[in-house]
Amino acid sequence: MAPLAIKKAQGNYLYDFNGTAYFDAISSWYTCSYGHANPVLTSAVKAQIDKLHHVVFAGMTHEPAVQLSQDLLEILPSNQAKLFFSENGSTSVEIALKMAFQYHFNRGEKRLAVVALEGGFHGDTFGAMSASGLSVYNGPFEDLLIDVIRIPVPTTDNIEILLQEVEQILSGHAVASFIYEPLVQGAAAMQLIDVTSLCRLIRRFRESGTTIIADEVMTGFGKTGTHFASDQMGNLPDIICLSKALTGGIMPMAVTSCSQEIYDAFYDDQTSRGFFHGHTYSGNPLGCVAASAAIKQLVSAPIQACIQRITTLNAVFAQQLKQHRMVSDVRHCGVILALDLNTEMQRYGQQRNTIFKWFWERGIFLRPLGKTVYIVPPFTTTAVELKKLHQSLIDFLDSGMFK
Length: 403
Ligand SMILES: *Cc1c(COP(=O)(O)O)cnc(C)c1O
Prior knowledge:
It contains twelve helices and 16 strands. By secondary structure, the protein is α/β, with parallel strands linked by helices. The strands form four sheets. It has a seven-stranded mixed beta sheet, sandwiched between helices. Strands 1-2-3-15 form a four-stranded mixed beta sheet. Strands 13-14-16 form a three-stranded antiparallel beta sheet, with helices on one face. Strand 8 and strand 9 form a beta hairpin. Helix 3 runs parallel beside helix 9 and helix 10 packs parallel to helix 12.
């Protein structure tokens, strides 16, 4: 398919060069949770651009970074104490993995293995790619990846066997970190993870001294109903990866947060114990002010009410979907809703393009993954817009396109 040219985006809609509007049902890859060109966010960036648009973030700091640190630490899980800035989800994961390796190194332990979940997605740089279990992306690079031990996603059915498997892994390998997407595996077509089982895994890894990394690049900032998916889990991670909706989609930015204990293993008069990782645009002031403004939106009563409304309407709609003969599975969590079509399909096959086109022609932008059609609408989606979107999903299922 030739790329579709987008002229502008405003609120919950994308506009093409004919002026046709398309509802952004996936918030442009889960970024623009407060709508495109949100006036509060854009005015924060506009006000900052004349003051300080960029400066080296090594040996220097600035007000927007200090402010963002305060704002983020206020809403992050209580054990998170320090932040490390970068520009995208992949680098936030890369940094988390390196941080975990060096944390152990600095403590005099050589731990070189990473444990990750099957079907997980953590990004496209080498470390992140290695941790990702979706091998369709990694074919040409398999021989170059770092050592990652992959285990099945924990379920109530497999957890006992899985814990035994983990015992074997821990006795045979020096594991540095365990990385997972909390509650929802996004790129695996919005698969939900059983919280209790995942918590048991985390607890076992923690007992063994393994650093726990939650990749909240997709789940962060309200999408699962709470500020972070980790808020719904009893076992908190040592490190959290954040990006995507961090700035409400206005600026590319990422943060890797960590606990005081992780930080303390680096803080020393000896320079070699420091964390030598930095990107040119780390801590970009425009990104920082956008992120601070986005966090202010997130915690506001109106946006919290929006998240609640979408969550409730999705839950009701999920019950309706479950009855549909064309649907084999329905999953929902917060504003995320996914349905599996009762048919077999390739992840990126021709049928997927047909589904994409069906919705596009009806003014809706979404990106099916194999037989899964999912939505992650902006929080600013009205009840009327959401019901219309739900109805289009039903119309699609009723269309008889797939039997
Ligand atoms: C999107 C995503 C990434 C990668 O983020 P990029 O900004 O695309 O590099 C990493 N982890 C998860 C869970 C993601 O959804």
